[in-house]
Amino acid sequence: MPKILLTGGAGYIGSHTAVTLQADGLEPIVLDNFSNSHPLVMDRLARITGRSLALERGDVLDTAWLTGVLRRLRPDAIVHFAADKAVGESVAKPLKYFHNNIGGAVSLMRAMTQAGAEGGWERVPALVFSSSATVYGDPASVPITEDFPRSHTNPYGHTKLVIEDMLAAQVAAEPSWRVGVLRYFNPVGAHPSGLIGEDPEGPPNNLMPYVSQVAVGRRPCLQVYGNDYPTPDGTGVRDYIHVMDLAAGHVAAVRRLLQAPHSFTVNLGTGRGHSVLEVVRAFEQVSGQPVPFRFAPRRAGDVAQCWADPSLARELLGWRATRGLQEMCADAWHWQSGNPQGYR
């Protein structure tokens, strides 16, 4: 059974990917320092999968420790999730993002190289990188294909762009490296069991968890940042993708890299955009709860609209998103209503 190491594997996307990998006959190993996740996730994963998943507790910035983990485990593939991910926070705290995101990726790549040299691997593990649609900056048009010009409008997107370039340089220098870069659009929703879901610390920086917390009574009102964008209702439009569809995309990427030694970069999205107000109305409908909101000024680093052309992922990985906005909202509500305070 191929072993797949998930850095940040107890986080929102990592935990759902762990479940999906296990269901597909692969062996997920969670690596996390729980700085932005909760140890209770491991118990929830055991309830969903029917067995305890392996855990390595530590920080990807600790290169010596990480090298030892890789040398001992000898994983077949690594999925690198571990990173800070809030656009707004990255604007306020850019150094934190440069240190954790870029520094973490450098540490992982060094550990992979060192463990390979010391351990005599036949080949370096395949690597799937958790990138983002923020590398497209403010796109000139939509839908977005992978050959669009890259830029950034915030430090978070800047870190993803830099890491993509680092990986491309490493693949050019060492052709034995197999790297899959997945540019996510906007992950939302939760596992249908309601046992795991998105649980940000402090006020959420993303729309769906904020809407969920307003609906469950944890927060009084949603702030909608900007109602004067050049979109049908003036609010920002995004490509929201169910986290279980996104998790399936990681499984497809891992399978592809294990079978074919070719690196690739693909968008993971639905190919359709929804505005903030569309999401609010859909959530009210499935939850039966009001979601009061008020408009606020635009937020630094945000763009008007952004959605994917996911056809390359269909072609290369045989993957496509299958869940719509109603199911995204219903699963998010199932998680939030059953866990009003998240894991805490």
List its salient traits:
344 residues; single chain; seven-stranded parallel sheet; alpha/beta; 11 helices; 42% helix
Helix count?
A: 11
Radius of gyration: 19 Å
Spatial order of the strands in the main sheet?
3-2-1-4-5-6-11
User: Approximately how much beta-strand content do the residues carry?
Assistant: 15-25%
Major sheet summary line: 7 strands, parallel
Query: How is the quaternary structure best described?
Result: single chain
Shape: globular
Series of H and E elements: EHEHEHEHHEHEEHEEEHEEHEEHH
Helical residue percent? 40-55%
Number of separate strands: 14
* Sequence stretches where pLDDT stays below 50 over 5 or more residues: none
Q: What is the terminal separation in angstroms? A: 34 Å
In round numbers, the mean pLDDT is: 96
Q: Helix/strand-derived class?
A: alpha/beta
Structure description:
The protein is an alpha/beta fold and 344 residues long. It has helices at 12-23, 40-49, 63-73, 87-92, 94-119, 155-173, 207-215, 243-259, 276-287, 311-317, 325-338, and strands spanning 3-7, 27-32, 54-57, 77-80, 126-132, 179-184, 186-188, 222-225, 237-238, 240-242, 264-268, 274-275, 293-296, 305-306. A 7-stranded parallel β-sheet has the order 3-2-1-4-5-6-11, sandwiched between helices. Strand 5, helix 6 and strand 6 (179-184) form a beta-alpha-beta unit. Helix 1 packs parallel to helix 2 (40-49) and helix 1 (12-23) crosses helix 8. The longest helix is centred in the first third of the chain and has 26 residues, at 94-119. The radius of gyration is 19 Å and the shape is globular. The mean pLDDT is 96.
